[in-house]
Design goal:
Strand content: 5-15%
Number of domains: 2
Structural class: alpha/beta
Strand order of the largest sheet: 7-8-9-10
Mean pLDDT: 92
Helix content: 40-55%
Low-confidence stretches: none
Distance between the termini: 30 Å
Radius of gyration: 21 Å
Shape: globular
C-alpha cells in the first residue's frame, strides 16, 4: 500500500493536528458490550467534534470550524480521517493473518519456489510448540528471490548497518539494521523491515517500540534525501491479526500516518505480500539497472 497523493505533501502542522485530535478523540470506536474482542473499528472524526476537542485542549477551534461550517483545513482533516478509517477497516483488516493462515500461505509459496540456501528463511524466536520458520519473513524472502531471479544479488539477512556512499566516501550510515536489502546494505535500491507477531498474546512496549523505530528510520531517509538527494525504497511489512487489529488498531493508524508523511515508501499488510512483493522486487531490478555509478 502506497500513500494517498491527496495527503502526501501536507505540512507538519497538518500532522500535528492529526496526532492531537486522534489522541483526544480516540483512534477507535468501541464495539457494544458483549461483542467479540477486537470487533471495534477505526473512527472517522467529524469536524464539529474536532472543534470541540480543540476547545477542550485550549487550542484554536477556528482552525477547523468557522461561522458554523468547516474550514478548508477542517474538511481536509475530515477527509483524511475517513480515508484512514476506510483503509484500515476495509482493506487492512481482512489481509491480516493468524499463525495458521500464515503457515498455510508460507508452505504454498515454499512448495512453488523451492528456495536455495542463499534465500534466507530464518526461524522465529519462540520455543517449544511455537518454534517454527518466521513465516512472514520467509514469504517475503522467497517472493523476492522468485521475482529477481537466481543471478541477482540480494541480502536476505543483513548483518551490518545500511550505508550510503559517493565516490568511495560515506554519506550516511543509518542507525539500525534492516531485515533485507536489495542488492546489498551498501547503497541499496531498497531495504525492508518485517514485523510479524503471530504468537504474541499481549501488546507490549516491544511491539510499540517497533513502530517508532520505523519512524526513526524514515526520518533518517528523509534527511538523506533532503541533503544528499539520495533515496532508497523503505518498505515496512507487517502481520498478525491479533497483535495489530485486536490489540493495536491505534498503531495501525500511526502507520497510515507515517506512510502519508513519507516516512516509509510502502506498507505491506499480511496477505498483500503475494501481490506486492513480486511487483516491488521487479521494480527494484529496473531501478538498479538505471542507478548512476556515482553512488559507488
Amino acid at each position: 500500500m502506497r500513500g494517498n497523493p491527496k495527503f502526501m505533501h501536507q505540512p507538519g502542522g497538518f500532522w500535528a493536528l492529526v496526532r492531537t485530535l486522534s489522541e483526544e478523540l480516540n483512534y477507535t470506536k468501541r464495539a457494544p458490550n458483549g461483542s467479540p474482542k477486537g470487533s471495534g473499528t477505526v473512527k472517522i472524526h467529524e469536524v464539529e467534534e474536532m472543534a470541540a476537542a480543540l476547545t477542550r485542549l485550549r487550542l484554536n477551534p477556528d482552525l477547523v470550524w468557522r461561522k458554523g461550517q468547516a474550514s478548508e483545513l477542517g474538511q481536509q482533516l475530515r477527509d483524511y480521517f475517513e480515508y484512514r478509517a476506510n483503509t484500515l477497516n476495509d482493506v487492512v483488516r481482512p489481509n491480516l493473518m493468524d499463525a495458521q493462515a500464515a503457515r498455510a500461505l508460507y508452505e504454498e509459496i515454499r512448495a512453488r519456489v523451492d528456495p536455495p540456501a542463499a534465500c534466507f528463511v530464518p526461524e522465529n524466536k519462540q520455543k517449544g510448540a511455537m518454534k517454527a520458520p518466521a513465516y512472514l519473513t520467509g514469504m517475503v524472502n522467497m517472493l523476492v528471490y522468485e521475482a529477481i531471479g537466481p543471478g541477482q544479488a540480494c541480502d536476505y539477512g543483513p548483518m551490518q548497518l545500511t550505508t550510503f556512499t559517493r565516490n568511495r566516501t560515506p554519506l550516511r550510515t543509518l542507525s539500525r539494521r534492516f531485515d533485507g536489502a536489495f542488492p546489498s546494505p551498501v547503497n541499496p535500491v531498497a531495504v525492508w523491515e518485517i514485523k510479524e507477531y503471530y504468537y504474541t498474546t499481549t501488546f507490549g512496549s516491544r511491539v510499540a517500540d517497533g513502530v517508532y523505530e520505523t519512524l526513526l528510520d524514515g526520518m533518517e531517509f528523509e534527511e538523506l534525501e533532503q541533503n544528499e538527494k539520495v533515496r532508497a525504497e523503505h518498505v515496512l511489512i507487517i502481520d498478525s491479526h491479533f497483535t495489530w487489529w485486536i490489540c493495536g488498531k491505534s498503531y495501525l493508524c500511526r502507520m497510515i500516518d507515517m506512510l502519508n508523511m513519507g516516512m516509509v515508501s510502502e506498507i505491506v499488510f499480511g496477505r498483500e505480500v503475494v501481490q506486492r512483493i513480486p511487483a516491488l522486487a521487479r521494480d527494484w531490478t529496473l531501478k538498479l539497472a538505471k542507478k548512476p555509478a556515482k553512488h559507488a
